UniProtKB/TrEMBL annotation:
Keywords assigned by UniProt, alphabetized: ATP-binding, Nucleotide-binding, Transport
Pfam families the UniProt entry points to: ABC_tran
Taxonomic lineage: Bacteria, Bacillati, Actinomycetota, Actinomycetes, Kitasatosporales
Name listed for the protein in its UniProt record: ATP-binding cassette domain-containing protein
SMART domains: AAA
Membrane-traversing stretches: none
Keyword ATP-binding: yes
InterPro entries for this protein: AAA+_ATPase, ABC_transp_ATP-bind, ABC_transporter-like_ATP-bd, P-loop_NTPase
UniProt KW Lipid biosynthesis keyword: no
Segments forming domain ABC transporter: 2-226
Family the UniProt entry places it in: Belongs to the ABC transporter superfamily.
Single Gene Ontology MF annotation: ATP binding
Amino acid sequence: MLELRDITAGYDRGAPVVRGASLTLAPGEAVGLLGPSGCGKSTLARVAALLHRPDAGTVVLDGTPARGWRHRAPREQRTAFGVLFQQPRLSADPRLRLADAIAEPLRATGRKDQIPTRLRELAPLVGLGDDLLARRPHEVSDGQLQRACLARALVLRPRWLICDEMTAMLDASTTAALVAVVESYRRESGAGVLAVGHDRTLLERWCDRTVGWAELGAATGMPGVA
C-alpha cells in the first residue's frame, strides 16, 4: 500500500503549493489524479515518488514511513518507484544514447550484468529498434524519447509507477501505445500506478478510479505551479 497522509509541500515553506493532501494507492491499482494546471498535482506526485521532501505529512510504503528523499532514501524504498515525467527532454541526459539512458538505473544500483537482458526485454516492448537505441535524444522525436523514458522507468521492475502527465506532449497513437505498455506491466507485475493529468477522458478510460483534486482534502497554494 502507498499512502500519502496529510501532505503539505512546495518550494517555498511560506507558500506551499499543496496543503493537507491525502491519497491511498493499493498494489495493482491504477489511480488517476485529475486536476487543472497549477493545482499542485505534479508536486504531490514528486512527493509520492520520494523525489521531493514534504513540509509536513507522511509517505508510507507497505506500512513503513519513508525514511529519506531522493538519494538519501534507502535503496529498497527509492528503487520501488519508476517515474515518467511530462517532458522527456528535461528528464533525459542529452549525452547518452537511448540504450545507455534506459540502462542508467541498473548501472547506478550495481546491476550492470542485467543490462543486456533488460534491453532485449524492454526495447521491443516500448517500440524501440536497434537503430533508435543507438541514437541520442536530439536525434529522435518526443514520442520516441518518451518510449525510452518509459523503458528506463520500468528497468528496475518497480512496485509503483508514477506517471506525471506522461502523454501530454504525445499524439494519440503514441499515447495509446504507452498506456498499453503501462497496463501490461501492471497486470503482469501487480504494480500500482498513479497517473497524474488533466484529461478526464483519458484517466477514466485508463484507471480503476479517478480522484479529483478537491477530493484529496487539499488546497492549492502558489498559483501557476502544477
